[in-house]
Every structure is written in C-alpha cells, then in structure tokens.
Write a structure and sequence with these properties.
With 185 residues, this protein is mainly alpha-helical. Helix content is 67%, strand content 0%. The termini are far apart.
C-alpha cells in the first residue's frame, strides 16, 4: 500500500497538470470570466466538481463508505465573509490559492505574492479565529443542515445525479455558446 503523503502528492500533481493544461494558471484567463470574455473556468472547474460528485456516487454504489468524506459545518456569516474576501482577491489578482500554486510551479513569478498571502493567512488564522469578535462568525448555524440532501430530504445519489446531468447540460451549453460567439473557451 502506498503511503498517504505519496498518494496526496500524486493527486496534487494530477490536479495541477489538469489546471495548467486547462489554462487556469493564467490570470488573464481567470479574470476573463469576470469580464465575460472567457468561459474556460466556468467549464473546467464545474466539470471537475461534477466528475468528483459522480465518482462519489459510483463509489457509494460499489459499497465504499463515502460518508467519511469531510463536510465542513455551515457558518452562514463566516462563509459569506470568507467568500467575499476570496472573490475580491480572485478578481483583483486573477489567482485563487490552487491556481497560484500551479502558476508558480509553471514558472509564473507573479503568483509569488498570492502564495505568500496564502501562507501568511495560514499562520495568521489561528490567532484570528480565537479573537473574541470573530468567534460568533465561526459558530455553526444551529438551524443549518450539513449537506444539501439533508436540507432537501433527498437521497444524496439522486441529488448528485441531478447535479451531474443539469451541470453537464450547462457546461455543454457554455461550450456551444463560446464556439458560436467566438469567445475563448
């Protein structure tokens, strides 16, 4: 059996390879989404998410215990604030943490500030999360459900199949639109 660190290294390398080949290590391509000029990201990233979702369903049907997959608590305020900060940084710089690592690995030195910010954020997070005014933002919402299937009262496999089919249709539509209109895809 392979050691965990080697498994994660291989998975990370494969993800980086796909992101680089999909053009997602290029900040111009990433900010092109916000300018409605390039629809690569809305095609590549949901494809990866839907493939992973479909894979989880298949593993579940094969008898694997997929309930052990990490599901973060729902924290409405904290997740909204975090999403806003992430989105503004992504828009202004053209990188998210994953794409900045891929870009740096590809030799793009403009990704260095984002990597430094990510590493600094890791070290700054522990004292910030313990700070009194921040604690309520990180509290689990008492009425929240951990997953969409729990929230909707639906079998997770049915919901995943609906997402895969619906999301796949949207991805195909985006691709056809980008080809028809000559937009980069």
């Amino acid at each position: 059996m392979m050691p965990d660190w080697l498994t994660w290294l291989l998975i990370g390398t494969a993800i980086g390879f796909v992101l680089e080949n999909g053009g997602l290590a290029n900040p111009r391509k990433l900010t092109g989404v916000f300018l409605l000029r390039d629809f690569t990201v809305p095609q590549v990233m949901p494809t990866a998410i839907l493939a992973a979702m479909g894979g989880m369903v298949v593993l579940s049907l094969l008898g694997f215990d997929t309930a052990k997959a990490f599901t973060p608590d729902t924290m409405y305020v904290g997740q909204a604030v975090g999403g806003l900060v992430f989105g503004v940084g992504f828009y202004l710089g053209g990188y998210c943490p994953g794409t900045s690592m891929v870009a740096l690995g590809s030799g793009r030195l403009d990704a260095l500030p984002f990597m430094a910010g990510m590493i600094g954020g890791w070290y700054a997070w522990d004292p910030i999360r313990r700070w009194g005014p921040v604690k309520p933002l990180l509290a689990k919402a008492p009425e929240a459900r951990d997953t969409f299937p729990e929230l909707l009262g639906v079998d997770p496999r049915i919901l995943a199949a609906a997402f895969v089919l619906g999301g796949g249709a949207v991805i195909v539509w985006l691709y056809r639109r980008s080809v028809r209109e000559g937009v980069t895809a």
